[in-house]
Amino acid sequence: MLKKKLKNNAKKVDSFIKSYLIKQKKSQLLKPMKYGILSGGKKIRSSIIMSTGKIYKLSLKKLLFISAAVECIHSYSLIHDDLPCMDNDKFRRGKLSTHAKFGESTAVLAGNSLLTLAFEIISDKKFFLDNNKKIDLIKNLASSSGHTGVAGGQELDLKYEKKRKSPKQIINMQRKKTGKLFEFCTLAPLIIAGKSNKEKKNMSKLGEDIGLLFQISDDFLDITGTKKKIGKLIKKDKKKGKSTLISIMGLKKAYKYANNLEIKILRKLKKHGNKAKELSNIVQYILKRQT
Ligand code: GRG
Fold this sequence. Notes:
Largest sheet: 2 strands, antiparallel
Helix content: over 70%
CATH superfamily: Farnesyl Diphosphate Synthase
Strand content: under 5%
Number of domains: 1
Bound molecules: geranylgeranyl diphosphate
CATH class: Mainly Alpha
Shape: globular
CATH architecture: Orthogonal Bundle
Order of helices and strands: HHHHEEHHHHHHHHHHH
Strand order of the largest sheet: 1-2
Number of helices: 15
């Protein structure tokens, strides 16, 4: 049931992005950009935006603009993450990674173009929203992605390879690398709905926690998953000497940590009653997922 819902949401975002790109002028980079963003991917961040939007009764149309922008940033980060100078992965989403298919320089430029496309989408005139709210969205998406967010987290992730790090350091790195974009996903609907700073702060924290939970589950999948199901090579973290909670605590303790985090998130969501049911279901799916 939930899996069907997630697939359906992914389809909606994919068709939004497709029709957005069709209206743009053509370029040589369009093909690798589409390859990076449209062929595969769960689009779970979009489902989080949509289910958070349900708590605040927001229209799907507005949420699609935000979802498309977030998926552009996410796909850009994956394209660059797979590059030889970073994680050097040849496979992603069950196919060749973008640089393996199109070459390194094209993958860098396609990634850069998805990054800028994200901000083009939010600032689009057809996204009917008060300009101050748009500026707030742009500012928050930029800070979630840059040196205080995903990029900063990625730098730490690479620097921590083959080094013994404390749980606190790893959690801080993962909160940035993965948590910050999830934070934006649960914050953006409240910016659109014009909610108070206090409510925004609470939902931001919840999103960051969901992102951390998602990253830990990603680390589990690297050990327990199959190449066929997750669409990329497995057991890479150990080979690369990646610092993860699993590498320093062991599977059992890391699972306990993740399980407690899930309970904490669900307890907070309970306060929103039935309106948060879908978001709670997604949170409960994260640790159980096999893809
Ligand atoms: C500044 C945004 C930005 C990027 C440049 C390369 C880089 C810096 C960051 C990489 C960050 C990264 C790879 C984080 C991992 C997040 C993660 C758990 C990815 C897997 O996400 P899924 O499972 O992937 O949602 P699909 O394929 O389903 O979309």
